[in-house]
Specification:
This protein has about 260 residues and is of the alpha/beta class. The protein is built from 6 helices and 12 strands. β9 and β10 form a beta hairpin. The longest helix has 16 residues. The radius of gyration is 22 Å and the shape is globular. The model has no long low-confidence stretch (mean pLDDT about 90).
């Protein structure tokens, strides 16, 4: 089985995010980045399938990422966790791409990578759209089995449990297919020292848009169906209102809640 994990390099959520003044896109050069935490669940899901096959040499895990040069760190982290190989699509023209263009680049890259199962996280921790997996499946013409909180692979059948607010449902599909998993699906492993050292020798290919047969006009901000038109910094937090109960505390509280339309 050939498994490909689609992983994203995202700005550190704990860092002070900034936007580029010229196009209102995230300033990735000005903040630290890392492998999206939700994509670590995707890597773990793929590695769990590989582990379930024992020492079978025909089960391989390749990690695919699309992003700037720094996105190589996301590939490195996945290799350290246990993935066998990496592919990094990097091209300046990709900057500013929306979900549609991103799904196009990923689908074209997957056409060049032998695969049976493609695994995504439930969403990226920066855009949080959660739609790229389904878009890629549509472009590839294969089923999408998404948002699995429990995953079982038996031969060519992939079965998931999808948990909703009021009920859970079981969904299954037959390979080849696209799978996405939630952050409840597993507990991502930490890279071991052995894994970190082994990752240095694992192959990583770097592709451009030309390698995928894509034109720069098909991606980037100019081809995006959605754009950020304005960015406003979040105002600093101000001191709250302190109500001293001098016998009128309840009245003051009701007035505050009513004025702010909390009641």
């Amino acid at each position: 089985m050939k498994i490909v994990v689609c992983a994203k390099f995202v700005p550190d959520a704990t860092a002070d995010r900034r936007f580029r003044a010229e196009d209102n896109t995230v300033d990735r050069a000005g903040v630290d980045g890392l492998l999206s935490e939700l994509d670590e669940n995707a890597v773990e899901a793929a590695l769990a399938v590989k582990d379930s096959g024992g020492d079978a040499p025909d089960i391989t895990v390749t990690v695919l990422t699309v992003g700037p040069e720094q996105a190589a760190d996301a590939v490195k982290k996945a290799l350290q966790m246990g993935a066998d190989a990496g592919v990094h699509v990097v091209d300046d023209a990709i900057h500013g791409s929306d979900a549609l263009a991103t799904s196009l680049v990923i689908a074209k890259a997957l056409e060049k990578i032998e695969h049976d199962l493609v695994v995504f996280g439930m969403a990226s921790t920066d855009g949080s759209m959660g739609v790229v997996a389904a878009m890629v499946a549509e472009r590839l013409g294969v089923p999408a089995v998404t948002l699995g909180s429990e995953v079982t692979v038996d031969g060519t059948t992939v079965k998931i449990r999808r948990d909703g607010d009021t009920a859970s449902e079981t969904i299954e599909g037959t390979l080849p297919l696209v799978l996405s998993v939630t952050d409840q699906a597993n507990e991502p492993r930490y890279p071991s020292f052995k894994g970190i050292m082994a990752a240095k020798k694992k192959p990583v290919q770097t592709w451009s848009l030309a390698d995928l047969g894509l034109d720069a006009a098909q991606v980037g901000a100019s081809a995006a169906w959605s754009q950020v038109t304005e960015v406003t910094a979040r105002p600093p937090r101000t001191a709250g209102t302190i109500v001293t109960d001098d016998g009128t505390g309840a009245t003051q509280l009701v007035e505050f809640l009513s004025t702010n339309k909390f009641l």
